[in-house]
Write a structure and sequence with these properties.
Layout (H helix, E strand, L loop, with lengths): L5 E3 L4 E3 L20 E4 L2 E4 L29 H4 L1
Antiparallel strand pairs: 1-2, 3-4
Length: about 80
């Protein structure tokens, strides 16, 4: 396994270091945190094109307690 940090600008991934692997590899991309930049002497967070981050839907989605229970319509197929 080989890990490389990169910056994603909404279209492209720009590695922060050289990548020294050859050939094709399966990759996993994990968005860690927004990049910050200095604007007029103050640190400012760049906005992600989509404002959906891990946990951003917390307390906004409700799921029924019986969500995983079998549906009555499917009983004949599950016997």
């Amino acid at each position: 396994m080989y890990a490389v940090k990169a910056i994603y600008d909404g279209v492209n991934f720009k590695p922060k270091q050289p990548i020294s692997v050859k050939g094709q590899y399966e990759v996993v991309i994990t968005f860690l945190e927004p990049v910050t930049e200095m604007v007029a002497g103050k640190e400012q967070t760049k906005k992600h094109p989509r404002s959906a981050f891990i946990g951003s839907w917390k307390d906004k989605i409700w799921m029924s307690d019986d969500f995983n229970e079998p549906l009555d319509e499917m009983k004949e197929y599950m016997e």
